[in-house]
Amino acid sequence: MSESSSIEPEAARLAAEAVSRIPRDANGPVFRAPWEAHAFAMALALHEKGLFAWGEWSAMLGEEIKRAQAAGDPDTGETYYHHWLATLERMVAEKGATSPQALAQHYQAWENAMHRTPHGKPIELKAEDFRE
Protein backbone atom coordinates (compact mmCIF):
# COMPACT_ATOMS: atom_id res chain seq x y z
CA MET A 1 0.00 0.00 0.00
CA SER A 2 1.36 3.39 -0.89
CA GLU A 3 0.94 6.44 1.37
CA SER A 4 -0.72 4.28 4.03
CA SER A 5 1.80 3.12 6.60
CA SER A 6 -0.67 3.77 9.45
CA ILE A 7 -3.42 1.64 7.92
CA GLU A 8 -3.79 -1.83 9.40
CA PRO A 9 -3.18 -4.26 6.48
CA GLU A 10 -5.84 -6.75 7.56
CA ALA A 11 -8.48 -4.03 7.90
CA ALA A 12 -7.52 -2.69 4.47
CA ARG A 13 -7.77 -6.18 2.98
CA LEU A 14 -11.24 -6.69 4.45
CA ALA A 15 -12.39 -3.31 3.16
CA ALA A 16 -11.00 -4.06 -0.31
CA GLU A 17 -12.91 -7.35 -0.35
CA ALA A 18 -16.14 -5.70 0.79
CA VAL A 19 -15.88 -2.65 -1.49
CA SER A 20 -14.77 -4.11 -4.80
CA ARG A 21 -13.92 -0.90 -6.67
CA ILE A 22 -11.11 0.21 -4.33
CA PRO A 23 -8.03 0.99 -6.47
CA ARG A 24 -5.42 -1.62 -5.52
CA ASP A 25 -2.38 -3.56 -6.53
CA ALA A 26 -1.02 -6.89 -5.27
CA ASN A 27 -0.18 -5.29 -1.90
CA GLY A 28 -3.59 -3.75 -1.26
CA PRO A 29 -5.22 -0.33 -1.72
CA VAL A 30 -3.27 2.24 -3.73
CA PHE A 31 -3.48 5.98 -3.12
CA ARG A 32 -2.34 8.77 -5.43
CA ALA A 33 -2.17 11.39 -2.67
CA PRO A 34 -1.89 11.37 1.12
CA TRP A 35 -5.43 12.74 1.57
CA GLU A 36 -6.80 9.63 -0.17
CA ALA A 37 -5.08 7.38 2.36
CA HIS A 38 -6.40 9.56 5.19
CA ALA A 39 -9.98 9.35 3.87
CA PHE A 40 -9.61 5.58 3.53
CA ALA A 41 -8.24 5.32 7.08
CA MET A 42 -11.09 7.43 8.49
CA ALA A 43 -13.63 5.11 6.89
CA LEU A 44 -11.81 2.06 8.28
CA ALA A 45 -11.81 3.58 11.77
CA LEU A 46 -15.50 4.46 11.63
CA HIS A 47 -16.35 0.97 10.37
CA GLU A 48 -14.32 -0.58 13.20
CA LYS A 49 -16.23 1.64 15.67
CA GLY A 50 -19.48 0.21 14.30
CA LEU A 51 -20.82 3.32 12.56
CA PHE A 52 -21.67 1.32 9.43
CA ALA A 53 -21.37 -2.10 7.80
CA TRP A 54 -19.35 -2.47 4.61
CA GLY A 55 -22.47 -3.44 2.65
CA GLU A 56 -24.11 -0.17 3.70
CA TRP A 57 -20.94 1.75 2.79
CA SER A 58 -20.69 0.07 -0.59
CA ALA A 59 -24.30 0.91 -1.44
CA MET A 60 -23.88 4.56 -0.46
CA LEU A 61 -20.57 4.82 -2.34
CA GLY A 62 -22.30 3.39 -5.42
CA GLU A 63 -24.97 6.07 -5.11
CA GLU A 64 -22.32 8.79 -4.89
CA ILE A 65 -20.50 7.45 -7.96
CA LYS A 66 -23.74 7.24 -9.97
CA ARG A 67 -24.63 10.79 -8.94
CA ALA A 68 -21.21 12.02 -10.07
CA GLN A 69 -21.46 10.14 -13.37
CA ALA A 70 -24.88 11.67 -14.01
CA ALA A 71 -23.25 15.09 -13.44
CA GLY A 72 -20.52 14.33 -15.99
CA ASP A 73 -17.75 12.52 -14.07
CA PRO A 74 -15.96 10.40 -16.69
CA ASP A 75 -15.32 7.58 -14.17
CA THR A 76 -11.68 7.11 -15.15
CA GLY A 77 -10.70 6.17 -11.59
CA GLU A 78 -8.97 9.46 -10.88
CA THR A 79 -11.92 10.78 -8.89
CA TYR A 80 -12.64 7.59 -6.94
CA TYR A 81 -11.50 8.95 -3.58
CA HIS A 82 -13.45 12.16 -4.13
CA HIS A 83 -16.52 9.90 -4.14
CA TRP A 84 -15.14 8.04 -1.11
CA LEU A 85 -14.81 11.35 0.76
CA ALA A 86 -18.31 12.47 -0.28
CA THR A 87 -19.62 9.13 1.00
CA LEU A 88 -17.72 9.56 4.25
CA GLU A 89 -19.18 13.04 4.77
CA ARG A 90 -22.70 11.86 3.94
CA MET A 91 -22.41 8.77 6.14
CA VAL A 92 -21.27 10.63 9.26
CA ALA A 93 -23.99 13.25 8.78
CA GLU A 94 -26.77 10.71 8.18
CA LYS A 95 -25.63 8.59 11.15
CA GLY A 96 -25.55 11.65 13.40
CA ALA A 97 -21.80 11.46 14.09
CA THR A 98 -21.65 15.11 13.04
CA SER A 99 -23.86 17.63 11.31
CA PRO A 100 -23.71 19.00 7.77
CA GLN A 101 -23.15 22.42 9.38
CA ALA A 102 -20.09 21.18 11.29
CA LEU A 103 -18.71 19.62 8.10
CA ALA A 104 -19.20 22.90 6.24
CA GLN A 105 -17.56 24.84 9.08
CA HIS A 106 -14.50 22.57 9.06
CA TYR A 107 -14.29 22.66 5.28
CA GLN A 108 -14.23 26.46 5.41
CA ALA A 109 -11.62 26.39 8.20
CA TRP A 110 -9.36 24.19 6.05
CA GLU A 111 -9.84 26.57 3.12
CA ASN A 112 -8.87 29.50 5.35
CA ALA A 113 -5.82 27.65 6.70
CA MET A 114 -4.77 26.58 3.22
CA HIS A 115 -4.84 30.17 1.93
CA ARG A 116 -2.69 31.50 4.78
CA THR A 117 -0.17 28.64 4.68
CA PRO A 118 2.92 29.07 2.49
CA HIS A 119 3.40 26.42 -0.21
CA GLY A 120 5.28 23.40 1.08
CA LYS A 121 4.44 24.01 4.73
CA PRO A 122 2.06 21.80 6.73
CA ILE A 123 -1.46 23.16 7.03
CA GLU A 124 -2.44 23.68 10.65
CA LEU A 125 -5.88 24.69 11.81
CA LYS A 126 -6.09 27.60 14.24
CA ALA A 127 -9.05 29.12 16.02
CA GLU A 128 -8.95 32.05 13.61
CA ASP A 129 -9.62 29.66 10.72
CA PHE A 130 -13.09 28.98 12.08
CA ARG A 131 -14.09 32.66 11.89
CA GLU A 132 -15.75 33.84 8.70
Average pLDDT confidence is 88
What oligomeric state do the depicted chains represent? single chain
Give the end-to-end Cα distance, rounded to a whole number of Å: 38 Å
Note the main sheet. Answer: 2 strands, antiparallel
Briefly note the structural class of the backbone: mainly alpha
Gyration radius, in Å: 16 Å
Helix content: 55-70%
Low-pLDDT ranges: none
Tell me the total number of β-strands.
Answer: 2
Strand order, sheet with most strands:
1-2
Proportion of strand residues:
under 5%
Commentary on this structure:
There is one protein chain. The chain is mostly helical. It has 5 helices and 2 strands; from the N terminus they run H-E-E-H-H-H-H. A two-stranded antiparallel ribbon has the order 1-2. Strand 1 and strand 2 form a beta hairpin. The radius of gyration is 16 Å and the shape is globular. The protein starts with 8 loop residues before the first helix and ends in a 16-residue tail after the last helix. 18% of the residues are buried.
Can you describe this structure in just a few lines?
56% of the residues lie in helices and 3% in strands.
Summarize the topology:
Blueprint: H1 9-18, E1 24-25, E2 28-29, H2 34-48, H3 54-70, H4 80-94, H5 100-116
Antiparallel strand pairs: 1-2
Characteristic key phrases:
132 residues, globular, two-stranded antiparallel ribbon, single chain, mainly alpha
